[in-house]
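Protocol step 6 of 9: fold each sequence in the batch and record its structure tokens directly after the sequence line. For illustration, a two-sequence batch is reproduced in full.

Sequence one:
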Amino acid sequence: MTQPSISPEALAQAFHIAPLDIRSADERAGDLGFIPGSLHLHLPPDGPLHTLDDLGGLLQHAEAVALVCLSGRRALELQRRLPTLDGKPVLVLDGGMLAWTQRGLPVAGIPDPDASPHLPIPTPQSLFRALLACFSASATEAILDHDGDPELLEARALLQHAFITAGVDPEQPDPRHVPLLLDRLAFYSRTLGAPLDRIRDNIDNVIINIHAWKPA
């Protein structure tokens, strides 16, 4: 029986389908980068599935989940064990990240090494405020452009929920939590319909600033 799958082009337009990147952290941070707004959870095809609990309520607005790996092979193997997730059908991204990049679709996580930071972030608090402001702006624009779902109109509230799911206290932030929070904020922005290239730019700008940041 043919397993459900989705093409890169279709996934790029389907904001109601949540991309779940099952590659290792090293792969995701590698030369191919990752899909802007995708969630990351390392899930080897034959590994334990209890780590899925880390997703919490992140998939509440999704209609389906698309597993993403390098070529689609590992995703297909995992899909056989995981046909549904939180009651949502599980799809496989055809051809994985290789196919996504070959189509020239937006990729995050590989910013221009010559780019200069342009956000003032002298403290952890200002870094986290900049993160929230950055993604709030793009999410709000998306809602205004696309007449978003009424349940999603409280863009800032939804993005602030990213702090909760990432286990981050906005009043006492820890810079070590930035990668997970960035993952969550980008995912919610995609859910709200923000353009992938805008999400990519937000992610890469934050990465550039993190690399340049020197604690006060």
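Sequence two, same batch, same settings:
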Amino acid sequence: MKHFLITRFNLGFEKNLKINGIDSYEWHQTRIEIFFNYTYPLIVGQDCFDFEWIVIFDPRTNKEVLDLFSEKDLFRKITILQCAAEKFLFELRNYIMVRTFSENFVITTRVDSDDGFFPDSLSRIQKICEKNQDHIPFAINLNKGLIVDVERGVLYKKEFPSNPFISLVENTKNIETVYFEEHLNVGKKFDVIEDSNRPYWLQLIHSGNLVNQVKGYPTVFYSKRIKKVSIFFIRSSITYRVFSLFKVISFKVLVRFK
């Protein structure tokens, strides 16, 4: 079994930036800051290390941007793959096929460049996969998560079937990857195993996010804007306790989930 976590960082960025008159380098600096302040610590903090994290860049990306990104990858956890948007699936499939030819099956999991997972989420996906090997191919959807509004300082509980964190388990002889279709449509082709036991992922709402919207039930209100997040999860038999420590902010918040 091989497990690939896949993040699209800036495919087709030039067209959108030109339309909106945004400076490319400044935009990338902001996106890199968001990525390493929020997404990166949540992924490198996973309790399993048996996965490869592929981050996809547009081939027109400035070398200074790529160098800045690589410098911030302190744990050397990321594999950068450059490919044009129109060749994305073809290049991704070829990359994975070369690295899984001796494996029986492969897991591909989505995560956006400004979202993240609870520390045991990837290991949970792998356990579900191992228990259901006789039913390959199938998708795995971790239904519950948190929406974090970093501008307003609010946490929301959210349940989201066929969400942007969905995984696809496939035989290595017929790889499509989880990006073969938009996440909302994956269940139209594959059976989906759902886990709704508790929150597994975090979706961020911030000033640069044009897609995500605040939907869910407010859980905790912070007194200040969240500038940087490091989240540690301590498991007990009854609850999951989430301790959130914020840079420059000298307080912490405890959230309990039943």
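Proceed to step 7 once all outputs are recorded. Observation for sequence two: The two ends are 32 Å apart (CA to CA).
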